[in-house]
Each structure stands twice: as structure tokens, then as C-alpha cells.
């Protein structure tokens, strides 16, 4: 039994190292790699993915897991070992359903698709990306045939990102959420404040944006010796190891506040990565997030619950104003707070206001599910996208860049990923609600720019568990109930009805 334990720990350590290498290759591609490096990078990434997958599905690893899983052996294991063996067995069993040749083919396809997406987005021409996306969608359907979970094929995709989630659960949750958000939006649109609102014409040079982002990077307690910030087309966070977590932002958007809030958002992800369990679980399947919805809850928590709050701007606005006094000389804190929470349906998801953001996510969920179920064709996406935008928010994209080409996720084969953004938004409201109950001084702490207790609360209620429990179990353990859109809707009503005097 000791031989089997030693083997599974050794394999997990090496697989963790492979993961770090793959993350480094991906980070480099999206930040500093010259465009012509894409073909070679596709080969490099594919080999790493194939080698990792072959190790995961090897008969030798499976045999050792089976030995440890036998009841007479399992009962003799220590607590941590039991947790690891149980989780590892489930992961490996699922991975063994997928051939290594398929994994290699998917990675090659998506690595070449990313620069094609970049070019298509830059030229606002979906046709450039179309053949790549058609191949990816077919590969996603093939993947579903290997996993073959009960119910709609899309179940096999969403389960990779949000274990236990299904199309039926999402449709029920999103149907309520969509109806409620549209109702709130309609009431706000009918208000005199909305009809007369003017978005501030803000102009911050890149060097000033960078300065502000560096300040918030430090204020949110990200350690500079374990993390760094760079620039990419689409902001993201990736982890190469326990002490090497990297985030990116973007300074080229029309709204200069984009770089600030994207930095906060990615900082939330990075803080979670740096808080993963280590003692007894380092370099194992447990030292990871149980779902992307829970991961997203951490970024949305810091971005919206904390950094879009009035308490936060009572503290941070003087710092912001001091950085660019000429740009903000005519605005007081109330005008500023209203501006950072302005409700204005927009085309770009990552630039969307807090209220309408989830409508963007629901749109993508509905499209993905229809694609996988063969109800629509890839070639029809631009028109379908535009029609759904009009249906949900009453606006229509002028071109592919601000419509169907805006996100990089499909170029990476990340179908099933988008719903986790809405799940994370719901979770974040539940967590903030519970935090305020557990710490009655939290708002005054935010006003002082003191985030230590907030981070400590997240460490103790979310981060420390890793994958010891599922996301649903962690939320239930912390908040007393699982995913509940009603808490999120009530949060939105309390905040935005007050802002718009509804």
C-alpha cells in the first residue's frame, strides 16, 4: 500500500509541474510571443498536453488508485490520503474516457485558432475565424461523445467547469435571473435619472492607468514576490506554481476604467490561487478550485462587492483623484460613485455594467447549447448573436468585433465555461451577504482601505478548502444554502433602485 501511495503522490507532483509548464507557454503566447511563433507553440503545447494526459490515463496510475480504493486498504489511509485518493479516482476515471490523440488534436487546433481569432477580431471579420471555430465545435461534440453524461450533450462540457451542474439547472436559474434583470433594467430605463444620465468623458494616459493599477495591485495585498501584472488583449490570470501567479490587464479600451476594474477582477483570481491549500495537499488534485464558478466568485467579489461599493470609493477616490487631478477636478465623490455604477447596456461583456453583465453570459450559454445540440450552425453566429443582443438589451452590434468576436474563449475550446461567470456573480453576492453578517465592521474597514480581515475571511471560508468539497458544498457550508439567484437579485435591487431613485 505504501508503494501505491508513494506512486500517486509522485505522479501528481509531476503532473502539477506539467501544468505549470503548459500555463507558462499559454501566458507567453498571450503576452510576449511574436505572432509568427504560433505554429511552433501549437506543437509545444500539444506535446505537453499529450504527455500529461498519457500520464493521467496510464494503467499503472489507475492500478495503484484501484489498490488504494479497495475498502480494506482505504480504511487504513490517513484522512488527507483518503480525500486525495477519492478525488483522484474520480478525475482519472473521467480522463480515461478521452483518447490522448484527441487531446493532442484539440490543443493543436485551439493553439492555431487563437491567432486567427486575434486577426479576425482586429479586422472585425468573422469569416477569418469561421473555419477554426467550425473545427473546434466538432471537436467539442466529439468530446461529449467520450464523456457521455446523462441528458443534453452540453452537460458533459459544463461539468468540466462546474461539477454537478446541468443544462436543466442552468435553464431554471438563468430563466429567473434573465426575467428579473430585464425587469430591473426596464424600471431603471424609465427613471428620470437614467434618461438624463451622462457618462463622464474620462481620459487617462496609459502611464496614469498603469500607475493606478499598480496601486490597487498593492492595496489588495497581492505579494510582488509571488505575482506580477502584464498586458494582453483579453485580461486573464494563470498560475505557474504556488509562488508564481500572473495577471494581465489591458490599457487600450475606450473607457480608461476598464484597466482598473480588470486588474481588480484578476487580482481576485490571483488571491484565490495564492490561498490554495498546501499543507498535506501541495501538488495534489486537492490544491485547486473545485469549480470555475467559485473561482469567478472571488474575482466578482472584489470587483463588484468591494471595489464598486460606496465605502470603497470613500477611501480610494482621493487616491485616484490625486493620481490624475486634471482629469477629475470637476467631479465629487457622489458623481464619481454614480459613474462607476452607471447602468448602460453595452456590447462588450468585459466592459458591461454590473446589472446587465449576466445577460451577456446567458446569451453565450444559449448559443453554446444550441451549437452543441446542432440547432444552429457556426456560420449563423453573427446574425444570431446580434438578434439576441437586441432581444436581451435592446442594442445591436455594429460589427463582429463588438459582437461575436469579442471573447477569446471559443478559440481555446472553452465551451461550458461561460455559465460560470454568472454562477460566480451569484456566489459573490451570497458571500458578501454572509461576510457582512459575520463582520459588522466590514464597511468601515473598507472605508479605511483595510482589506486584511476580508481576505482572511475568504481564506478561512473558501480558499483553504481547495477541492476537499465541491463548490456547492463550500457555499452551503459558508452561507447556509447553495446557489441562490434571489440573493443576487435582491442585492441588485437594493443597490440600483437607490442609485436610480426607482
Largest sheet: 3 strands, mixed
Output the helix-strand order.
HHHHHHHHHHHEEEHHHHHHHHHHHH
**Helix residue percentage:** 55-70%
Distance between the termini: 66 Å
Account of the protein in words:
Helix content is 65%, strand content 3%. With 502 residues, the chain is mostly helical. It has 2 domains: 147 residues; 333 residues, Neurolysin, domain 3 (Orthogonal Bundle), CATH 1.10.1370. It has a 3-stranded mixed beta sheet with strand order 1-3-2. Helix 17 packs antiparallel against helix 18.
How would you summarize what this structure contains?
The protein is mainly alpha-helical and 502 residues long. The protein has helices spanning 2-31, 38-56, 59-69, 71-74, 79-95, 100-123, 126-147, 155-161, 167-189, 192-196, 206-219, 257-274, 292-306, 310-323, 325-328, 333-340, 357-372, 381-393, 419-438, 442-447, 452-461, 471-479, 485-499, and strands at residues 227-231, 237-241, 244-249.
Features:
Neurolysin, domain 3, mainly alpha, 3 strands, 3-stranded mixed β-sheet, 502 residues
Write the layout of secondary structure elements.
Elements (H helix, E strand, L loop, with lengths): L1 H30 L6 H19 L2 H11 L1 H4 L4 H17 L4 H24 L2 H22 L7 H7 L5 H23 L2 H5 L9 H14 L7 E5 L5 E5 L2 E6 L7 H18 L17 H15 L3 H14 L1 H4 L4 H8 L16 H16 L8 H13 L25 H20 L3 H6 L4 H10 L9 H9 L5 H15 L3
Helix pairs in contact: 1-2, 1-3, 2-6, 3-5, 6-7, 9-17, 9-23, 11-12, 12-13, 13-19, 17-18, 17-19, 19-23
Amino acid at each position: 500500500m505504501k508503494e501505491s501511495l508513494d506512486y500517486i503522490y509522485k505522479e501528481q507532483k509531476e503532473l502539477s509541474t506539467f501544468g505549470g509548464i503548459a500555463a507558462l507557454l499559454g501566458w507567453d503566447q498571450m503576452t510576449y510571443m511574436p505572432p509568427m511563433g504560433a505554429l511552433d507553440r501549437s506543437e509545444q503545447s500539444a506535446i505537453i498536453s499529450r504527455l500529461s494526459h498519457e500520464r493521467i490515463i496510464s494503467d499503472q496510475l489507475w492500478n495503484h488508485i484501484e489498490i488504494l480504493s479497495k475498502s480494506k486498504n482505504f480504511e487504513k489511509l490517513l484522512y488527507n490520503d483518503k480525500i486525495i485518493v477519492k478525488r483522484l479516482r474520480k478525475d482519472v476515471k473521467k480522463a480515461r474516457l478521452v483518447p490522448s490523440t484527441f487531446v493532442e488534436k484539440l490543443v493543436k487546433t485551439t493553439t492555431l485558432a487563437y491567432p486567427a481569432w486575434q486577426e479576425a477580431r482586429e479586422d472585425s471579420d468573422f469569416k477569418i475565424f469561421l473555419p477554426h471555430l467550425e473545427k473546434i465545435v466538432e471537436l467539442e461534440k466529439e468530446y461529449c461523445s467520450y464523456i457521455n453524461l446523462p441528458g443534453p450533450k452540453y452537460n458533459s462540457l459544463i461539468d468540466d467547469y462546474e461539477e454537478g451542474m446541468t443544462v436543466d439547472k442552468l435553464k431554471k436559474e438563468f430563466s429567473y435571473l434573465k426575467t428579473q434583470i430585464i425587469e430591473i433594467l426596464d424600471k431603471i430605463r424609465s427613471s428620470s435619472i437614467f434618461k438624463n444620465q451622462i457618462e463622464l468623458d474620462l481620459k487617462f494616459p496609459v502611464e496614469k492607468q498603469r500607475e493606478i493599477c499598480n496601486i490597487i495591485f498593492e492595496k489588495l495585498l497581492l505579494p510582488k514576490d509571488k505575482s506580477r501584472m502584464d498586458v494582453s488583449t483579453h485580461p486573464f490570470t494563470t498560475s505557474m506554481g504556488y509562488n508564481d501567479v500572473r495577471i494581465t490587464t489591458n490599457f487600450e479600451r475606450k473607457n480608461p476604467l476598464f484597466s482598473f476594474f480588470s486588474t481588480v477582477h484578476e487580482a481576485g483570481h490571483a488571491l484565490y490561487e495564492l490561498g490554495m491549500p498546501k499543507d498535506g495537499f501541495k501538488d495534489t488534485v486537492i490544491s485547486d478550485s473545485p469549480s470555475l464558478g467559485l473561482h469567478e466568485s472571488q474575482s466578482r467579489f472584489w470587483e463588484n462587492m468591494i471595489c464598486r461599493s460606496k465605502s470603497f470609493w470613500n477611501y480610494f477616490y482621493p487616491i485616484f483623484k490625486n493620481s490624475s487631478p486634471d482629469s477629475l477636478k470637476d467631479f465629487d465623490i457622489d458623481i464619481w460613485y454614480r459613474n462607476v455604477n452607471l447602468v448602460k447596456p453595452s456590447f462588450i461583456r468585459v466592459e458591461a455594467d454590473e446589472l446587465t453583465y449576466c445577460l451577456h453570459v446567458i446569451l453565450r450559454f444559449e448559443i453554446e447549447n444550441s451549437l452543441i445540440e446542432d440547432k444552429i450552425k457556426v456560420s449563423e453566429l453573427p446574425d444570431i448573436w446580434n438578434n439576441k443582443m437586441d432581444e436581451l438589451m435592446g442594442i445591436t452590434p455594429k460589427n463582429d468585433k463588438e459582437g461575436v468576436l469579442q471573447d477569446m474563449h471559443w478559440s481555446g475550446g472553452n465551451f461550458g465555461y461561460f455559465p460560470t461567470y454568472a454562477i460566480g456573480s451569484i456566489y459573490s453576492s451570497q458571500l458578501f451577504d454572509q461576510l457582512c453578517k459575520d463582520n459588522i465592521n466590514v464597511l468601515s474597514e473598507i472605508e479605511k482601505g483595510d482589506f486584511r480581515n476580508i481576505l482572511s475571511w475568504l481564506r478561512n471560508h473558501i480558499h483553504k478548502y481547495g477541492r476537499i468539497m465541491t463548490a456547492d458544498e463550500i457555499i452551503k457550508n459558508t452561507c447556509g444554502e447553495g446557489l441562490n439567484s434571489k440573493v443576487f437579485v435582491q442585492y441588485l435591487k437594493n443597490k440600483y433602485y437607490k442609485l436610480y431613485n426607482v
